Amino acid sequence: MAGNRKGCVVESTAADGNASAGAFSLDSTVPNAAAHGFAAFRDGWEAEVGAGFPLPAFSPATTADFRVRGRAARVRDVAVTDVHGTTPIRTASVLGGTEDQVRLVVVRRGAWTLGGPHDRTAYTVRAGRFLLRHVGRPSHFQTEPGTTAKILVLPTATLAPLLGDRIVTGLADSAEVRLLVAHTNMVHTTVADLGPAGLRAVRNTLVELAKAVALRRFDDVEPQLAPALTQAAKDLADSRLTDPGLSSEVLARELHTSARTLQRAFAATGESVTSYIRRRRLEEAGLALTAPTGPLSVSEVAAHWQFSDSSHFTRVFKKHYGRTPTEYTRATGSHDG
Fold first, then answer.
1. Are 39 and 26 within 8 A, CB to CB?
2. Cα pseudo-dihedral 234, 239, 242, 246, rounded to 10
3. Cα–chain-centroid distance for residue 96?
4. Is the pLDDT of residue 16 over 60?
5. Mean pLDDT score of the chain, rounded to an integer?
6. I need a surface site. Which of 81, 119, 202, 256 has the fewest CB within 10 A?
7. Are strands 101-109 and 78-85 parallel, antiparallel or unpaired?
8. Which residues form the HTH araC/xylS-type domain (predicted)?
9. Angle at 22 between CA 21 and CA 28, to 5 degrees
10. What are the beta bridge partners of residue 8?
11. Residue ranges per domain, the chain?
């Protein structure tokens, strides 16, 4: 279902008839949308995420000029929100009510400050960092302009005993956080298609990975974590496709697991780690060969995407696409004229 509130782009992907899941996305950065952005966000949140995760009161400046791209999903008693705020986001000066939640904040860009200016426990999570803590009462937060972050609200009964009064912080690129982030990205893309059993499995994996963040280690032989491990490895591989040393051993080391465990996780997908890396390099090579800004030569593409030489690249490219690189380029018209 798609909606539009005075220029805001809102997409709802709630599973039909499923009261334990919901999702929506929002883009109020489009022209003429900011004035109605917060109302669209609030409506989407209340419709799809629900009363179990009440929104705080936001400052008048935030609600008046809410230029945000984001998405939110609820899976049973877990809520996951991704947000990129062009404008800063701040809570109001007065917060009422009660609160008992475990929250994880992962910041990729900008900064997210938890606590107000007069709060002794205020903490700023900067780019490349995360913070996990149990929140026992309503608390303020504010962001810098341009902040990109992921926020999880997690079940207190399971995680609060692990945390106690601790605030767990660290690098967003730690193995445990990588796995959790990869899994939440899968949640956003699949939640509308999941039945009750799938939602239960997704929720339980989210909680297990959050526990791993709290404990600073994950159980790499736990079967239900295999999909998250596979996705985290794929995300990491995609960011390093031009690295000549990229291998299953390198990925496993980055994710604090063994190469054998990683290979077992990939086996469930029907594709090995090596095959995935080769396929993704070939896909990127195909894009490079047809780039409208001026395609590279076959030898240049082969070298850039780490194929041993042009002959080897041509053989594997033809096996994948059914055409040689030159034939592929001609078929797309990239060298016309």
1. no
2. -50
3. 31
4. no
5. 87
6. 119
7. unpaired
8. 231-331
9. 160
10. 5
11. 2-218, 275-332
Whole-model pTM: value is 0.77
> Counting Cβ atoms within 10 Å, is residue 256 exposed (0-12), middle (13-18) or buried (19+)?
middle
Please check the confidence at residue 109 and state whether its pLDDT lies above 70.
yes
Starting at the earlier edge strand, list the strands of the sheet with 111-114: 123-126, 111-114, 141-143
* Structure tokens that stand for 270 in this block: 């029907």
In this predicted structure, what is the pLDDT of residue 117? 58
- The radius of gyration of the chain from alpha carbons, rounded to an integer in Å, stands at 22
pLDDT value of residue 337: 39
* 2-218 CATH choice from 3.40.50.720, 2.60.40.10, 2.60.120.10, 3.90.25.10: 2.60.120.10
- Residue 223: C-alpha distances to residues 177, 236, 262, 269 (Å): 18, 21, 12, 13
**What are the tens digits of pLDDT across the range 78-100?**
999 999 999 999 998 665 556 78
For residue 8, give the amino acid letter: C
Q: Is 296 helix (H, G, I), strand (E, B) or coil?
A: coil
Out of 1.20.1270.20, 1.20.1600.10, 1.10.760.10, 1.10.10.60, select the CATH number for domain 275-332: 1.10.10.60
DSSP 295: P
Residue 200 contacts by C-beta under 8 Å, 6 or more apart in sequence? 76
Amino acid at 195: G
Give, in order, the Cα–Cα distances in Å from 292 to each of 168, 305, 313.
47, 18, 21
Confidence of residue 36 (pLDDT cuts 50, 70, 90): confident
| pLDDT tier, 15 (very low <50, low <70, confident <90, very high otherwise) | low
Burial class (CB in 10 A: 0-12, 13-18, 19+), 222: middle
Model pLDDT for residues 141-178, shown as the tens digit of each residue: 999 999 999 999 999 998 999 898 899 999 999 999 99
DSSP code string of 208-252:
HHHHHHHHT---TT-GGGHHHHHHHHHHHHHTTTT-TT--HHHHH
Q: Is the pLDDT of residue 102 over 80?
A: yes
